[in-house]
Amino acid sequence: MGQQRTRRWAAALAACSIALGVAACGDEEEEAPGAGASTPAATSTTPPEKFAADTTMGKLQKKGEITIGVKYDVPPFGFKNPSTGDIEGFDIDFGKAVADALGVKPKYIEAISDNRIPFITDGTADLILSTMTINEERVKEINFTDPYFIAKGRILQKKGGDIGGVEDLAGKRVCTALGSTYEETLKKEAPKAKLRLVDSYSECLELVQNGGVDAVSTDDVILTGMIIQDDSLELVEGEELTTEPYGGGLKKGDTEFTEFLNGVLEKYESDGRWKAAYQKWLGQYTGEKAEPPTQTLEDVVPAA
Fold first, then answer.
1. pLDDT tens, position by position, 241-253
2. How far is CA 179 from each of CA 11, 132, 183, rounded to the nearest angstrom?
3. Total tally of structural domains belonging to the chain
């Protein structure tokens, strides 16, 4: 079932000719921003800096590879294309920018919500780009980059459902990912909801499709990916539950690597690559425009 859902997503992308770098969906005369490797904003042309051997950057350059933990089942941020076997999405594009800035190859591994921090602390991954929200508890365990995307917490249900807001979740079966921020948010905001905690959001999608749960709660962009795969689903109208600033996760105390990553992010946002990635993976489906986040890590968690 999971592969069938991802295949539907891949088919949607193919229909819009993203993978081929040609016309965007709904506009046959304009090339989709960021759609092809030849798009000016798609890659950085700055030669990689050579870093000292005792820094994380220098060690990665010597190795020739950076291991990045990403989602494999959360389009449009990270998913495995069943047609090609490639890992694709918004987070993956930013990961490529980091690898390019180092002059190394990116190696992507699957990082679900519950193992993202362990992967950093035990050295399994050098960097996590896995729709991970920056919050006070997490900054005690790992370092974060400045936010590279701001999501909003929402609720998804089948069209025609009777959920109108968080207050209607009492007694409802609600799915979210184990280890996500929504595990605690729902316990606080909807204490009478019947939580179903799973390892991955693809499981939540399957559960809401087959009636195993009444709703799914997570970031709006993740839920939008579910709707693109299945148009019998809808976002519940009403106020957002939360604001979710996504940050790149890395080993606690590695100040030099954090500064390097923030420098990559600043350039990625200023030279048009962020906007190109947004249009490629989200904008053409939602019809909405967006600007890169202006917040710093200190704006999100002042004591960080």
1. 999 999 999 999 9
2. 30, 10, 7
3. 2
